[in-house]
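Q: what does this look like with zinc ion bound?
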Amino acid sequence: MTLDKAYTPEKVENKIYQFWQKSGFFNPDNLPGKRTKSFTIVIPPPNVTGELHMGHALNATIQDILIRRRRMQGFKTLWIPGTDHAGIATQNVVEKDLRKEGKSRFDLGREKFIERIWQWREKYGNIILNQFKKLGASCDWSRTRFTMDEGYVKAVEAAFSHYHEKGWIYQGERVVNWCPRCQTSLSDLELEYKEENGKLWYLRYPLKEQTTGDKQYIIVATTRPETMLGDTAVAVNPKDKRYKNLVGKTVILPIQNKEIPIIEDRAVDPKFGTGAVKVTPAHDITDWEIKERHDLEVVKVINERGSMGKESKICEGLKTLECREKVLAELQKENLIEKTEDYVHSLPYCYRCHSLIEPIPSKQWFLKMDVLANEAIKSVKSGKVKFIPRRFEKIYFDWLKNIKDWCISRQIWWGHRIPIAGETDVLDTWFSSALWPFATLGWPEITKDLKTFYPTNVLSTARDIINLWVARMIFSGAEFMKKDPFSVVLIHPTVLTKDGKRMSKSLGTGVDPIALCEKYGADATRFGISWQLMGSQDIKFVEDNILMGKKFCNKIWNASRFVLMQIPSSELQIKGKFQISNSKLTVADKKILKTLEKTVKSTDKDLETFQFGKAARALYTFFWHDFCDIYIEKSKSQKDKKNSQKILLYVLLNSLKLLHPFIPFLTEEIYQKLPIKNKKECLMVEDWPKR
Ligand SMILES: [Zn+2]
């Protein structure tokens, strides 16, 4: 059997992927041989609205490398795929669709709107999973899950009622990030910050008690003067000596003509403005916390639609910016503006509809965090769950040690409805994804899968969801399964542009991995990505590396083609290990065998310790330099053809095995053509070379 003259990925990749799927070996139940140990990875479920970006491509490559190696090592390997319903993101995509028809979700009504989202999901929700296939991801597609499928709904309900019975779920009022357009609370993750040129106004609040002829004030600086209508205190830092004589005194809030106290609180930054700040508990998250410590009044002046409410009195019914003008004019009239400065600040916007966020107090459902946070701390402190790189444990501990109760309710329609009679809110998307490592295996039923594949082994993910997702999976695992969901959390590097900037589709700085696969092949894309995975440093993505991957693929192809032409087409017996002590071997034979042995050892060790780039580079050097440049060249003039034929085939076979996790399609295609006895059905289930 011979190989085509040139390697064409598009001719091979689809064909090979179908061949693998047909083999059934993505499903651990079909794997050949006796496999006692399991190895499981759950995919971080991409949003159904998602499209593959470089971060996904990088993470899919990492996970597939890990899974393919373990599969070859004889593990019962399972890589579970799936998608997240992604509450607000999905709801917004469908709302945008509706807007084209001139309708809003309120025109349709809740039931019809949700129906419409399901239709949308049927049509578009699996695009991203098909893109993973294109990259060669060997997930068990027969076990694909969705965070709102039938079984998953049961898991979410079981988790909720467990917490509820424990008395950990309660309703309370807090200041939340509110999108006046989406009409829902948002998590911090759902905000987008934009830097803007604003102003800092220095306002004079007159003291109630005037002791001298000149009027005495305390001066507060603010970027949002309209919120002063809802002030209920002025605060200074307790260490700030400038205000010692004023603490405990009373000021008269202008316009509202209301007495409010001057208090001390550690949250006040003495370097901001004058060091004295106005406190508006209803419209600022920090001020709400100050209120909790000092038992202040809450005056809500901005409503859910982002305009001024009844309590704002003279501004009732105005938009916030109109109110600002009016307030400033009033203050000016009273000579209560000390000065105005230019000020650059970042403002939060809704990440889906780009409306300005209004912090407002709202009644929400909360989950108590004290016991759960402690469980999560214990799991990592004890070393049962390890972060790689270790430095990310700090982010994790910092968050858990200062944790607040979790606001689990959202006022949108798409999601898991809070299972309490009469409740219309849905649960935060992360409430359901927190259950992912065991809900995907059948929990709350105690299934065979759950017993076989839980706990999972490695979780590979991005750093920005350590607290939102990883920490919550860890305490959920500890709480519901009494076992940590995984033992290793691999935080992969972030892929940046070649100048070190953030990749973003909307900024036009993103790179489409599918386009790379089409241009260079999936193997080349995977190898180029792996090549850049050195240590934990972020990757400044250079397309040349993918081109290098393509050249390497061509080299493997050409070398294999040469080897196949050198050996007889009758099958050769290739034993597990070649005896280097054989006296018939030449110096060159011995050298290549020794180098191969060394490469097997280092590759295996590097993959065990997640050093993908190091392994890729060693394999590249071995194959290109030691095997092609030196040994193949020498073999052309070697006298004992029979021996060198066997060694050529032996080294090629072992190279293909080592390269398979990185370059799965090409290596499989070549393997299928190798004339060796006792060949396995596919390279994917061949034995991994032993150290
Ligand atoms: Zn919004």
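The chain has a mean pLDDT of 92. Residues 523 and 663 are 5 Å apart (CA to CA).
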